Amino acid sequence: MRHLIAPPLLLLLAACGLSGTDRNDAEEEGATAATADASAVDPLASRDPAPGERMQEEIADSEQRPLMQAQVVLDRQGFGPGVIDGNMGISTRNALEGFQEANDLEITGELDEATRRALARWNNIPATRVVTIPESWSRISFQPVPDNPAEQAQMEALGYESLDEKLAERFHTTVEVLRQLNPGGRPAGMAAGTAGQGGATGQGGATGQRGATGQGSLPRTGATASPSPTPSPTATRSPAAGASPRAGSTTAAAPQSTFRPGQMVRVPNVGADRIDRASVDNQDWLRTLASLGVGTEQPKLSRLVVSEGGGWLKGYDKDDRLVVTFTVTTGSQNDPLPLGEWGITGVGRNPTFSYNPELFWDVPDSDAKQQLPPGPNGPVGVVWIDLTKEHYGIHGTPEPETIGRTQSHGCVRLTNWDAARLAQMVDTSTKVIFEA
Fold it and tell me: Residues with catalytic annotation?
């Protein structure tokens, strides 16, 4: 992921550009989307075995990866471990604590025996699977995102800088983890000398459909905030403290990708990614969900609680049952989290932004205001959940590996995939509580 820049004003616009796609391509894609079934929106969607059955793997993994398997299950159940990497970190501990609380287990934050038994019902879900990178990704325009807001403002979208980055975000992990799962460019467990090019494995393959929102581009039809009202233009806090834009040009060459379209790769077995087209009337948002491996079937939340000290967000349904837990980054010494009870004024999906340096302590006021395009590598990622506390919101990030580790300017920051999931769970009736 790219370096964070200083923050913007929130402003949803009516249209945004699709890099590398002309109007005829966009219209053709829309026609294809209208006639395809729901699974076609995401050729990389999971194909899970029925309960009690084992997945038939053409290429078995070279090792068991029990902690990654637990992370995969927790992620599917709504207890987000952040980046799926097979390591016990802050986000995984928070996910375990949330799962334990929701299942009336002793809250230890550890993968203890009682928790293992509770997770055992999903033992038929392997830690990893092998997919084929769609050939359609070869038509995506990847390009570096400069740090300078003036240069960002000239771009059509703040999209992914490389195919590797897009692939990692689709499977809720990092490029480094993908390389570990694919030593020598082949899926772990694949016999040496066997080509990893092409050959679908029943876990999705190439289609003729152009890739999903944010993989280096954004559709022309623009962002909406349905079903919640579009948030009014309002100042946001910076997604990360101490990340002031640079005065000069910072554009660099696009990173070279390890992976390529048509290649077979082993990835974390992210699931809960079923796309129901009929449930969302915004095709741009559907493509964003597919790009992030986030399904349309999500619980509805009556109440959110964000803990500044715990670094987590918990969501409760109408019966006050805990149903989701995500690790978040909140506030800093200069911009502390505004403790108290708040409401939601609207949800912005694929939002665009206005950058105003006068609002932030670590940015020179002499910098010019800029209008920034949308995209997953934008300052607040793919989602802005606007709060009744002026200038504050809940949003995504271009650097998921920093969640729970770096400060923000007072807002609540999640990974893009967790933010996209949360955006489908809340509306203007959801209560928000910020606590110490």
Answer: 395, 411
pTM of the complete model: 0.80
Q: What is the 3-state secondary structure (H, E, C) of the chain?
A: CCCCCCCCEEECCCCCCCCCCCHHHHHHHHHHHHHCCHHHHCCCCCCCCCCCCCCCCCCCCCCCCHHHHHHHHHHHHCECCCCCCCCCCHHHHHHHHHHHHHCCCCCCCCCCHHHHHHHHHHCCCCCEEEEECCHHHHHCCCCCCCCCHHHHCCCCCCCCCCHHHHHHHHCCCCHHHHHHHCHHHCCCCCCCCCCCECCCCCCCCCCCCCCCCCCCCCCCCCCCCCCCCCCCCEECCCCCCCCCCCCCCCCCCCCCCCCCCCEEEEEECCCCCCCCHHHCCCHHHHHHHHHHCCCCCCCCCCEEEEECCCCEEEEECCCCCEEEEEECEECCCCCCCCCEEECEEEEEECCEEEECHHHCCCCCCCCCCEEECCCCCCCCCCEEEEECCCCCEEECCCCHHHCCCCCCCCCEECCHHHHHHHHCCCCCCCEEEEEC
Domain borders along the chain are 1-436
Q: What is the pLDDT along the chain (436 residues), one digit of tens a residue?
A: 544 333 333 333 322 222 222 223 333 333 333 334 444 568 899 989 888 888 888 899 999 999 999 999 999 999 999 999 999 999 999 999 999 999 999 999 999 999 999 999 999 999 999 999 999 999 999 999 998 888 999 999 999 999 999 999 999 999 999 999 999 999 999 987 665 654 433 343 333 232 333 333 332 223 333 333 344 223 344 444 433 333 333 455 666 789 999 999 999 999 999 999 999 989 899 999 999 999 999 999 999 999 999 999 999 999 999 999 999 999 766 678 899 999 999 999 999 877 766 665 555 566 778 888 999 999 889 999 999 998 899 999 999 999 976 555 558 999 999 999 999 999 999 999 999 9
